[in-house]
Structures are given as structure tokens and as C-alpha cells.
Amino acid sequence: MDRRTVWLSSLVVLVVVLVAFFGTGYHRSILIFAGTALAAVTGLALLVGYAGQLSLAQGAFFGLGAYGYGVLAVRFGWHPLLAAGAALLLAAVVGYVLGIPMLRLRGHFLALGTLAFALIVIVLANEWSRLTGGPSGLLGIPGLRTQQLGGLTLRGDVQYSVLAGLLAVGSFWLFERVTNSDFGLALKAMSSSEVATQAMGVDVVRLKLLVFTLAAVLAALGGVVFASYLNFISPSAFDVLLAIEFVVMVMLGGAASALGPLVGTVSVAVLVEVLRAVVPLIWTNVRGPIEMIALGLVLGLLMVVRPEGLVTLWRRGGRHG
């Protein structure tokens, strides 16, 4: 871990502390949603930047974690921690089983295959109303509760801001550990040449399945925290646009860097809020569409200027590579 990475990660911790304890509820909500998204984006960065696999299923796994937690806690009365663990296990099983056929595909075929899975999850969330609440959503989802701490229940923006900060730092740490391990080196080799990697004795199929499953669990973890914070979820929160947003965060930050997911997630979150504040000052009647157009233009410009991601700004001399 280089010096710039250490300084930036320390800065992130400082920002989390300041926002959590001295920020407004508005700023805390941005931090919480960014923290939950970062878990999913980190998993996707491993898939795209190191395994060379583009998946549009991260939004679906995010929703699977949220609904798994919500349904088990609300419909079946499970303890929140038990429901959270079961939701992560469900995501791991579904990710592994789904990866067996999906990872035989490559390139845009893999993207289309995972997109089909995402659409299936959305349909189930809408139609299986007895469990999910259908289009109206699922109400009364409890906050995370820890029996070991005297039954303490996480509630309020401050506590969830700290949790989101821990999630962000934990995701960053996990990315560093994975990419600097033998597993990470094997992923890098596979993204360069699957044939050469397999010739060296590496089980490429198993490698793909493991990283795909890990990405699914990370996305589900973000979904669990998201659902427990809002106490409500609906299918509209996990549509295909969410998966595309995760991809944009990865590509904007830089998929092949530990800082990439963090930089991309924070950049998109901040940019969205800035446009929400600025656009109404210029256009008052067509605020929503103009915000989307402005966001698309700015993101497109940033990707043209920095095709390898904004993380290259931290590299020596601002050079790519």
C-alpha cells in the first residue's frame, strides 16, 4: 500500500467521523448510501478490473440482500443478525449457482446474461407480493441489533453513518488484501490470458466462480445495511439503472485500483447532489430530466478525459498506467 493510498484512506476516515458526528442529517444520508453502494462497487471492481468479467447483476444481488434480510425479519420474525447472515448466505449460493452457466459466456454475452437475471429478480420482487409486498414495498424492516452488546439496536443517522464508514473502510481493506494475494495475482493473469493461466495449472472456472460469488456477497451486504437503515424497500430501488450506476462508479473511479471503487462511488454521489442543488437555480420546471442529462454529460466528459478512471489523478505526474 503506497503512501498516497494511506493518506487518502486516512482522509476518508476523518471525513466519516466529521460527517457522522458534526454533519446534518442530509449529509449523513449521503454518506450512508455511498457506504452501502461502495460494497457492491468493490465486488464489481474485482470482477471487471481483475477478472475481466462485466456483470450487470450487482444491483440484483444488492436487492437480494435487502429483500432476504427484510423478508426473514418481517415475515418470519427472525433476529436481525440471523436474518442478515442468511441473506448473505442466500446471495452466496445464488451467485455460485448462477455463475456456473453464466461464466461460460464472455464479453457482452455475459453482460446480457446477467442483465436477464437482474430482470428476473425485479419481476419476482414485484409479483411475489405475499412475501415482498409487491410494488408497494415491504414495511417495518427492523434495524440491525446486536445481542452481544446488550441488545443494542442500530438506529438513527449517526450510528448508521459510522456503520457505513466501517463498511467503506472494510471494503477498501478487502480489495487490497484480495488483489495483493495469490488469488489476486491469478485473477490478473486470467484477465490477460485465460489459456495461459490455465496452462500454468490454475483452475480458471473455479477462479471465476469464487470472484463472482464474492462480488455477490459484497453487494448483498450493502443491500442488508440499506434495508435496515431505511426500514422499507420496494422493487423500484433495485431496477436495472442501479446496476448501470454501479458500473459507472467502477469505470469512473478506475476498475484496476484499490482506490477506484472509493473514488468512483464518492464522485458520483457528490456529483448527483451538486446537480440537484445547481439545476433548480437555472431550470425550475423541468428539473428531473435536466438533472439526468447534465449528469450524463458530465460523466461522459470525465470518462473521455480520464478513460482509465479518476484514480489516475493520484498517480505520479498524472500519467495513465
Structure explained in plain terms:
This protein is mainly α and 321 residues long. It has one domain (3-240, 253-258): ABC transporter involved in vitamin B12 uptake, BtuC (Orthogonal Bundle), CATH 1.10.3470. It has 13 helices and four strands. The protein has helices spanning 3-22, 25-50, 58-74, 80-102, 107-127, 129-132, 157-179, 182-192, 194-199, 204-230, 240-253, 260-282, 287-305, and strands spanning 138-139, 145-146, 152-153, 232-233. The strands form two sheets. It has a two-stranded antiparallel ribbon. The protein has a two-stranded antiparallel ribbon with strand order 2-3. Strand 2 (145-146) and strand 3 form a beta hairpin. Helix 11 (240-253) packs across helix 12. The longest helix is centred in the C-terminal third of the chain and has 27 residues, at 204-230. The chain is globular and about 55 Å long. Mean pLDDT is 85; it is low at 316-321.
